[in-house]
Specification:
This protein is mainly beta. The protein is built from no helices and 11 strands. The protein has strands spanning 2-6, 9-11, 17-24, 31-38, 45-51, 54-57, 65-70, 75-80, 89-97, 104-106, 110-114. Strands 2, 4, 5, 6, 9, 10 and 11 form a 7-stranded mixed beta sheet that branches. The chain has a 4-stranded antiparallel beta sheet with strand order 1-3-8-7, with no helix packed on it. It starts with a strand and ends with a strand.
Length: 116
Amino acid sequence: VHVVESGGGLVQPGGSLRLSCAASGFTFSSYSMRWFRQAPGKERELVASIFSVSMSYADSVKGRFTISRDNAKNTVYLQMNSLKSEDTAVYYCNAHSIWPPYTDYWGQGTQVTVSS
């Protein structure tokens, strides 16, 4: 199983970034795909999730972030617009099975830094 994030980097406040997460080794379309983030000294938090056509977002990113997936490419995306300094964190991709045994696969994370 491989879950690999890409697309992080340094961006100015108000800017945009698009994160990608390429997965392999499991039935991608059967998993809920989620983006988490963890800032220094803080707990990991769920940012967005998508399963089939159902999407959900943390209140802190609603209206600014958009999650999408391409099952043909086994890839999930996170489009991040109007970035703020408080969005600075390591962003992790997670594949979560919604059926027992509720398996979770994680990527290694990609750093997003929002700073002028």
